[in-house]
Amino acid sequence: MKKKVIFVCIVVIFVVSIIVVGIIHFRNKAGVDYQLEVVNEIDYMLFSENNKYGVINKKGEVVVQALYDEIQIPNPSKPLFICMYGYDMEKNQYKIKVLNEKSEQILYQYVVVEAIKINPVTNEIPYEKSVLKYKQNDKYGLIDFQGNIIVKAKYEEISGLDYREGLLLVKKRGKYGVININGATVVKAKYDKIDSDGYYEEGADYSKAGFIVGKGSDNDYKYGYINCKGKQILGNKYNQIERITNTNQNDDIYLVAFEKGKAGLYINGKNIIKHKYEDIIYEVNNDCLILQEDSKQGISDFNGKITIDMQYDNIFVSGKYINAQKDGQVDIYDYNTKQKLNFENIVGLNQTTNDNYSIAITSNDKYKILDNQKNEIRENEYDYLDYIYGDYFIASSNQKYGVVDVNGNEIIEFRYDFMQKIENTKVLQALLIEGNITELITEDQVLSSMQDCEIYVKDNYIVQYSDADTQYIGFDGSILKNYEVLEKELYAFKQGKKWGFANKNGETIINIDYDFVTEFNEYGFAGIKKDGKWGVINLNGEIIVEPTYTINFNNPKFVGKYYEIDLGYNEPYYVCYDV
After folding, report:
1. Three-point CA angle 254, 193, 265, nearest 5°
2. CA distance 262 to 277
3. Tell me, what DSSP letter sits at residue 426?
């Protein structure tokens, strides 16, 4: 009888264990999978007045008075504002209030609450958008925007991790690890240094980036590598590790690791190329590796097979052409065929996006055009050449830039101080230093010419602003109307020398009274300029501010009576005084 009871107990314990393991697995999986918030609309912005900060909404209404030394808006679509004041030098800390859109204090149960800063280079909003860190007993934890605890206060530090929104660098007992915004552990806290490898993939952004982890001190770190799923695939024994982030090799992880000063290559943790090289550099055009050994360079594939001998002082790559320098001479290879090309007086060859043409650099440092048989098309030589499209090239001669065709005919006069192609378009940007004039050009036509202007490349068009004009250009070089590229209720238009606003049918809605205007922005406000001063108008034609502001930059953006100041750190703020 007792044996039967014991057997039943064992079965029960076994079943319970399975259930517990299942629950833990489910919880862990739920914790590991996290969702990043997407902000589709900016509802709240910082504004500054008398060297203090407050918050306005998208109507330009003040929701938090400008009383604070600093304000963090972690998610500008949500009414949560971390207001800092009364800095304590001894504690190295501000006093903090968390307010909502009614200026009511929230999250008051926490003495210290902060937004978590992330890299402003890779994120339009420089904070984690769904979690905050709080401090208790000199330790940090995580809460959501409602104040619910996600992670108890057990870390000495919590900070954002470069290139990995949604993942947080944490410090515990003096060691670093990584958790996600759900609090799940991704990398255990046992390292002295952790960096993201910076791997980016179209459509996945940085979600497949792994971690370079260090143990030791500033003078002697030993590095290892952990993949994006938290698995360590290289142990901590290397002086340096770099991931090849722009390889064409699918999802495989390619790492260049240095051991005792020598570089080797690893693919998914397996050593493919032994540690014998001074450097290994990935060459993206031909998906190969430039190796350096005993100060000599050569090229190999990813299996370490040498395809161009290790005998050169320097190797320069232009498309499929390998320009390999040795003892003052240059050997030129076509990497597709691995054949050495024989030229006289040519020391470099650049591939163009047109298979019919390449650009040669001569021994006297001049440029000329070759056909697809590598023959000179014309004897014309230039100080510089860059292929544009069709049969056209940017060329430089006597320190001036212009455009020539393949036969050497001058298409655009050599009168510019600088010229470049705007990438993925048929439009050239040309600069005249005298007068600071920028012209947009296609083929033999000047599309737009403006003084002291700014140029922005949008998804499918280019916009050029000055303090008195705006021009829209298609990627194909066509001149566009604003209503062809913008979705607005009203559009800026010019009649004679004056500006006003019309609807899409061309009917004047707001009188043509101004020297210049901006387009209406997403908040329903536009700038109006008269006698060198700026004001603000709304979609109803109501003047919010008469033209009284002196603003020393083009195309100001207004929200109510305030206009935007953007210093380039993804934390713009608004003011209502002259700058």
Report:
1. 20
2. 5
3. S
Q: What is the pTM of this model?
A: 0.87
Domain residue ranges in the chain: 1-31, 50-266, 484-575
Let me know if 365 is exposed, middle or buried by CB neighbors in 10 A (0-12, 13-18, 19+). Answer: exposed
Direct distance between the N- and C-terminal alpha carbons of the chain, in angstroms, rounded to an integer: 92
Provide Rg for the chain, Cα atoms: 31
Question: Which single residue is written with the structure tokens 């901590």?
Answer: 236
Distance CA 533, CA 253 (A): 56
10-residue stretch averages of pLDDT, the chain, 579 residues long: 46 45 43 83 96 97 97 97 94 93 96 91 87 96 97 97 94 97 97 94 87 92 95 97 82 94 96 97 93 96 93 94 93 91 90 94 94 90 95 96 95 96 96 97 92 95 94 96 95 94 93 95 96 96 96 94 87 87
Apex 449 CA angle, 444 and 450, nearest 5: 165
Q: Are 358 and 348 in contact (CB under 8 A)?
A: no
Q: In what order do the strands lie in the sheet with 211-215?
A: 193-196, 211-215, 222-226, 232-238
Q: What are phi and psi of 32, to 5 degrees?
A: -70, -40
- The residue written with tokens 């079965």 in the block is 11
Q: In what order do the strands lie in the sheet with 461-465?
A: 454-457, 461-465, 470-474, 479-480
CA distance 538 to 559: 10
> What are the backbone dihedrals phi and psi of residue 167, each rounded to the nearest 5 degrees, phi first?
-115, 145
